[in-house]
């Protein structure tokens, strides 16, 4: 009908932001559309607030070690199995990856589909990351705060199946980005915890491949790199990247991502070398990120939350 056609014309003009009250005769339509837009924006804000408070509740629930007590003699090889057996709140659990000589206490992140075994967390700089080979091997820090899970554990985890790593990053303006790599694998200590990974997806840029500037791949890529610490130099640089950049990492010559670097509290920093918590393709070498979380999950992880459950949890409180 003519009415419908007129509405569609107004809608197109509205979408292109070219509509004017006087000339197009869309005044009524425009007001209605603006009203609908405002309503949707308010609904979105409400949902974001609800999500935020749900996240806060989860964080508070994490402050006790209930999970670890619940799973004493563990049959779970990772947090994905913990999740599948019904433990769906984030917190501390015991797992035993195949090949691991003993059970390992880990932080399971049950958000974003659940089942993530967290291998690294930086949030406020309380933990020093300029550590020795043996400390990176065994892991260090506080599982409820900042920590490194340990290269042996990461090796056992990533070689018992096909794992993805998800890297969640946040800057000091509250912007969040992520990078995810399939087939993330860390070799054993004999092979100096050599790193390999597959395809990238994400919003933070593919720092690990270093492919954002082709001529730099040779020295910027972390593919196939061995792990280095200040006391064990396995990089491709004539000097010692770990010593200069003050953290253990899979350095090349030296890096385009250095998530174990120095924690600078203000983001932008100046130093004699790019030693901050760096993810080059997003904020460059001279910006040190506020938050870095690295977590592992098998690619075939099944999330249990049904669409109905999601709908219910997103419903704004009345
Ligand atoms: Ca070297």
Automatic annotation (TrEMBL):
InterPro entries xrefs: FIB_ANG-like, Fibrinogen-like_C, Fibrinogen_a/b/g_C_1, Fibrinogen_a/b/g_C_dom, Fibrinogen_CS
Keywords: Disulfide bond, Glycoprotein, Secreted, Signal
Single GO cellular component term: fibrinogen complex
GO molecular function, one term: extracellular matrix structural constituent
GO biological process, one term: platelet aggregation
Chief subcellular location: secreted
Cellular compartments annotated: Secreted
Signal peptide start-end: 1-22
Protein name, entry field: Fibrinogen C-terminal domain-containing protein
Natural source organism: Poecilia formosa (Amazon molly)
């Amino acid at each position: 009908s003519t009415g419908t056609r007129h509405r569609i014309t107004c809608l197109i003009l509205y979408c292109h932001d070219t509509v004017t009250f006087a000339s197009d005769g869309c005044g009524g339509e425009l007001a209605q559309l603006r009203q609908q837009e405002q309503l949707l924006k308010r609904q979105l804000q409400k949902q974001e607030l609800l999500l935020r408070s749900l996240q806060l509740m989860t964080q508070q629930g994490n402050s006790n070690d209930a999970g670890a007590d619940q799973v004493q003699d563990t049959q779970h090889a990772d947090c994905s199995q913990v999740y599948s057996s019904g433990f769906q709140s984030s917190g501390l659990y015991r797992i035993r990856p195949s090949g691991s000589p003993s059970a390992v206490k880990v932080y399971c992140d049950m958000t974003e589909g659940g089942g993530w075994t967290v291998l690294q967390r930086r949030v406020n700089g309380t933990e020093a990351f300029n550590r020795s080979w043996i400390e990176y091997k065994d892991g260090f820090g506080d599982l409820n705060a900042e920590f490194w899970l340990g290269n042996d554990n990461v090796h056992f985890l990533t070689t018992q199946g096909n794992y993805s790593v998800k890297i969640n990053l946040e800057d000091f303006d509250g912007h969040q980005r992520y990078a995810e790599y399939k087939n993330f694998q860390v070799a054993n200590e004999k092979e100096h915890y050599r790193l390999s990974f597959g395809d990238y997806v994400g919003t933070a840029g593919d720092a690990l491949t270093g492919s954002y500037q082709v001529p730099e791949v040779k020295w910027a890529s972390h593919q196939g790199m061995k792990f280095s610490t200040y006391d064990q130099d396995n990089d491709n640089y004539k000097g010692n990247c770990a010593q200069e950049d003050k953290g253990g990492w899979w350095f090349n010559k030296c890096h385009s991502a250095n998530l174990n670097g120095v924690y600078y509290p203000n983001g932008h920093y100046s130093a004699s070398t790019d030693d901050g918590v760096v993810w080059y393709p997003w904020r460059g070498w001279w910006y040190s990120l506020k938050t870095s979380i690295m977590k592992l999950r098998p690619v075939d992880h099944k999330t249990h939350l049904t669409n109905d459950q999601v709908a219910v949890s997103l419903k704004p409180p009345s």
